[in-house]
Amino acid sequence: MARNDLQGSLDLLVLKTLSQAREMHGYGIVLHIQHASDELLSVEEGSLYPALHRMEQSGWIRSEWKLTETNRKAKYYRLTPLGRKQLLEAEKSFEQLVKGVNAVLRYA
To answer: How far apart are the first and last CA of the chain?
Structure first.
């Protein structure tokens, strides 16, 4: 799978996670993806934080520094209207990827 496909998959997972919560800090995003995937997927911080920064630069998410439940300072992320639009596009793109992979698997 090409690097852009992997990046797009991470974007999709993060945007979908944020669409289901009002806001979430990075570690919460990691935990949600792990839990929601029955521990099949794990996102490394070295991949997540550059992706969050890129998505923020693109206007898909916004961030704000707040205190966590344990009184630690963390950056909380939330989806923007532009991010919701991007999420729909990412879901369609992923569905096409899955359709293509399935077609190849049936053919082979």
So the answer is: 18
Q: How far is CA 57 from CA 9, 50, 82, 95, in A?
A: 18, 10, 12, 25
Q: What is the pTM of this model?
A: 0.88
- State the CB neighbour count (10 A cutoff) for residue 56: 16
Retrieve residue 69's tokens: 């439940």
pLDDT of 64 over the 60 cut: yes
Of the candidates 104, 99, 79, 101, the one whose C-alpha atom is nearest the C-alpha of residue 12 is: 79
Class for the domain spanning 3-107: mainly alpha
CA distance 31 to 1: 24
Do 55 and 84 contact (CB within 8 A), yes or no?
Answer: no
